[in-house]
Amino acid sequence: MSDRQTAEALCAVMNIQRILSFLPHRYPFLLVDRVVAFEPLRHIDAYKCVSVNEPFFHGHFPEQPVMPGVLIVEAMAQASALLVLSGEGGDMPASSLFLFAGIENARFRKPVIPGDRLDLHCELLRRKLNVYKVRCSARVGESLAAEAELTAAVVSRESLQ
User: What are the tens digits of pLDDT across the range 100-124?
Assistant: First the structure.
């Protein structure tokens, strides 16, 4: 098995402990529960199990709870960060943050409600220096719930102080 194949096999699945080692987000703002497929710096498939116990449902249409679109975009951004930060390796996750630089072509197609599993798919479109452009989609079953192209920069945590 080549080094690349070995790396792909090791990264094929990420449980919550591995996700927490890459992302600074914590409850209630961590919006990725598991990574189910991953090819370094190419694409990632992850999901978020949407529960009625999510804190945003108490104020976002309590009688007809709908996951806010901005949080669906945030879930796609977190999956994108996992794609980039885990693909770069080294000490990047501990010393770096993946910060939004732009959101383009965002479209919301279907409401996401309690009980849904939000499946996230992100593909790296291009990289220039520390800036990455990623195409993302969020699905519930076979239905497209949202899509967007996200641009983000990987920056040193120290540069923000």
Answer: 999 999 999 999 999 999 999 999 9
Return the CATH class of domain 3-160.
Answer: alpha beta
| pTM (2 d.p.) | 0.90
How many CB atoms sit inside 10 A of residue 137's CB?
17
DSSP-derived letter for residue 14 is B
In one-letter notation, the amino acid at residue 1 is M
Catalytic residue among 25, 43, 58, 60: 60
The answer to whether 43 is a known catalytic residue is no
The answer to whether 71 touches 8, Cβ cutoff 8 Å, is: no
* Residue 133 near residue 151, CB atoms below 8 Å: yes
For residue 45, the SS3 value is strand
**Which tokens sit at 121?**
């798919």
